[in-house]
Design a protein that fits this description.
This protein is of the alpha/beta class. It is built from ten helices and twelve strands. A hairpin with a 5-residue loop joins strand 3 and strand 4.
Length: 283
């Protein structure tokens, strides 16, 4: 690559999504589900180099939970070793979570308080369930995040959600700089084509730091596109359990982060440190 072009590219942020609400041990033995396993994977990936972590939690029966006590164990365990990492918790509308349950984690204080919290901007279908997010629910979550000084991590799956983002800005429920995940490949939302990717990016407001995120086999396709052109990418077992197309070998979170580094290295692009991301987002 031409040296002037390489120097013009800012550092690439890598967000790790180590687990989610869907993966189970029966799907992949490498997915971390307990707090200790999640902490272990996050710290190992931090050694390789990530800027932020998008966290989900499971209860003692390994079912998805939004309980702040379990999130506190995970956050404090990570920060004991890596207080610099930018940590985001989930306020997901999947698995029939009530608004009260979704607000619970935003009450964490002190060393357990998250830097960011996820905010899905509208209701949508997945292959086997749905994420329910009425406009009023989204406004309540956004307002609470603003009151608690927790930056919203905007989960955007289609153009309509970007319209909701603009509405929240007009209602002063979001303030810049904004942080967003643009997710592609879900059955009922935007697909990983250059036309849809470009259209979504074009509708984002100024001062938006966005990650390109591919679901399933689209993960590394979007990571490659992001490494060349986007502020950031997201990788991890929440979005894809397989190391390569064809589903022949299950991946680890560490392998996913290593692949993101390799893609960035091809064009000589540096990886954004957590401190650089904190500065960029005014955390």
């Amino acid at each position: 690559m031409n040296s002037s072009l390489r120097e013009a590219l800012p550092p690439l942020s890598i967000t790790l999504a180590p687990t989610g609400m869907v993966p189970t041990y029966s799907m992949s033995a490498t997915v971390p589900l307990t707090p200790d396993e999640i902490i272990r994977d996050v710290l190992a990936c931090a050694e390789i180099g990530v800027s932020a972590v998008h966290l989900h939690a499971r209860d003692e029966n390994l079912r998805p939970t939004l309980a702040k006590e379990i999130y506190a164990r995970i956050i404090e365990g990570i920060r004991e070793e890596r207080p610099d990492l930018v940590l985001c918790v989930s306020c997901s509308g999947r698995c029939s979570m009530t608004l009260e349950q979704r607000l619970d984690v935003l009450n964490l204080q002190g060393d357990a308080k998250p830097d960011m919290a996820s905010l899905t901007l509208a209701s949508m279908n997945f292959s086997h369930d749905a994420s329910l997010n009425t406009v009023e629910t989204v406004k309540k979550l956004a307002g609470t995040m603003r009151e608690r000084n927790i930056r919203a991590e905007l989960e955007i799956f289609d153009l309509g959600m970007i319209n909701v983002m603009h509405v929240l800005i007009r209602h002063e429920l979001l303030s810049p700089p904004y942080y967003a995940n643009l997710l592609f490949g879900n059955i009922a939302s935007a697909q990983p084509s250059l036309l849809e990717i470009g259209t979504m990016i074009a509708r984002l407001p100024e001062q938006t730091h966005y990650n390109l995120v591919g679901l399933g086999e689209a993960q590394m396709v979007l990571a490659a596109i992001g490494a060349v052109s986007a502020p950031g990418v997201r990788v991890g077992l929440e979005d894809n359990l397989w190391l390569a197309a064809g589903r022949r070998k299950r991946a680890t979170n560490m392998q996913m982060v290593e692949k993101a580094h390799a893609l960035s290295a091809i064009i000589g692009r540096e990886i954004m440190t957590p401190a650089q991301l904190r500065s960029k987002l005014d955390l």
